[in-house]
C-alpha cells in the first residue's frame, strides 16, 4: 500500500516530515541538518542558490522549526517593486508621504512582527533602501515613509540571493556592513543536478500533487522514466521538474508514466543541431509553448569569430539591413529580450542575470512588450519567487 504524502507546510505548532521525505539525497540531508541546528536561534540567515532550487521552502522550514512558528511568515520579492515604491512597501508610509499616499499603510516588516520575513532576491534592493534596512537590523525598529516616530519590531530576517553578493560588495553595489549583518549563517541550496537523489522523490511528489488536482487515479512512474529523469540536466531546477511532471500528466493517456510519456524540455540525449534561422523567423514572436533552446554545455567558450550561432546572427542582421527593416534596433532588442525570457523559463531574475542588466529594466521592457502584467501583485505572488512545494500553502498578508 502506497504511503500518504505529507502536507506542507504543517499547521502552526506541528512538526513536518515533508522535507525529510522529499530530500533524499545525502547532500540535501546535510543541509536539513544545518537548518535544524540554526532554526531555534534568532540569527539572521542568508540563503543562496540558483533560481528554482527551493530557497523559499528552506526559509519556511526554518520558520516552522523556530520559536516563531506561531507568528506570521511574510514573503517579499525585493525585485517586484520599482525603486520609488520599495521603501514604502517594506516600511510602510504615512498619509500624504508622496503623491497618491492616502491614509496610513503598514509595511511588510510591521506585518511580520513576531514572526519571520523572507526577503527574496535581496540583491535587487537599491542602495538607498539597503541603508534603511541596515538600521532596522541594528535598532530593531522602523520609520514609515513620511513619518518620524520609530516603531519597534520583532522580526527574524531570512534573505535569499541568486547573485554573488561577495562580487556585488566588491563592485560597491551591495553594502558590505549589510552583507555581514545578513550573513550570520549562510545556507547554500544546491542545484537539482548536484543532488540527483532528490529527483525521483520530487517527481513522485509532484505526480501525487497534480493527480489530486486533476482528479486522476494515482499514476506509477516506470524505471525507464525514472532513469530518464535522472539523466536530464534540469537547468530550471525544481521548478522545471514540477512543470515537466504537470505537463506530462496533462498529456498522459494511461495510468503509467513511462519514458515516452515524459515531456522533457531539455532531454539529455538532445544533440541535434538546429538549422540557422532566417531573419524573419528571428523577429517573429513565438507561441508560448515554444521549446527553449538547449543551453550551452558547462565550460564551453563561444568565440564570436568561430561560433556558428554568431555567424547565423550576423547573417540575419545583414538580411534585415538588406530588407531595410523599420525600427531595426528596437526590433532586434525586443526579440533578444523575448527569446532570453523564454530560454530562462519566464524568470525575470535569470533573464536579467543572463543579459547583464538590472531586474527593473527587464521588468519594465517586458511590461511594454506585453509579456508580463503591469498590475501590482502581493509580494509573495510576484514573479521569480522560489515557490514552495507543494504549492498549496497560504500566504500571509498584513
TrEMBL record:
Q: Name one GO biological process term.
A: regulation of DNA-templated transcription
The alphabetized UniProt keywords are:
ATP-binding, DNA-binding, Nucleotide-binding, Transcription, Transcription regulation
Q: Where is this region: Disordered?
A: 286-307, 372-398
* CDD domains attached to this UniProt entry: AAA
Q: Which domain of life is it from?
A: Bacteria
- Where the record annotates domain Sigma-54 factor interaction, the positions are 21-250
> What is this protein identified as?
Regulatory protein, Fis family
Q: Is DNA-binding included in the keywords of this UniProt record?
A: yes
| Pfam families in the cross-refs | AAA_lid_14, Sigma54_activat
Q: Which GO terms describe its molecular function?
A: ATP binding; DNA binding
